[in-house]
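Researcher: Next sequence.
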Amino acid sequence: MKKIFETNSPEETMAIGEAMGRAAAPGEIVCLNGDLGTGKTVFTKGFAKGLEIEDHVVSPTFTIVQEYHSGRLPMYHFDVYRIDDIDEMNEIGYEEYFFGDGVTLIEWSTLIAELIPTRVKKVLIEKAPELGDDYRRITITEPDF
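Model: Next structure:
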């Protein structure tokens, strides 16, 4: 199933993430893709709010993964943009996150496509400068269960 949303502010993008976070279940993996600056982390902040996480959510660009345990489910936020070798994911112990009791969000998931299970939710965030600086098209694809 595919859903398409159009937003015109970071707050609207966060609201889409928040709705997904409220509906999230243990073991879910959400793959976030889009160019630099499209709002993947903004979306994730909304998702965390939907999970009732009160911690300040930041992009884990340099740490690869951030863990948040203060909500109704743990959230594991990956940013794999700087992964040079897929073995780095093994060193991190990605399987414990991907197949654990929390929800995993992966920014730049296409860079580690060979590690991504088949049944994941995919979120693509795109800009369209001709429609305004804050315009985003968010395409959410959910697997058929």
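Model: Strands lie at 2-7, 29-33, 65-68, 75-79, 103-107, 121-127, 136-141. The chain has one domain: 12-121.
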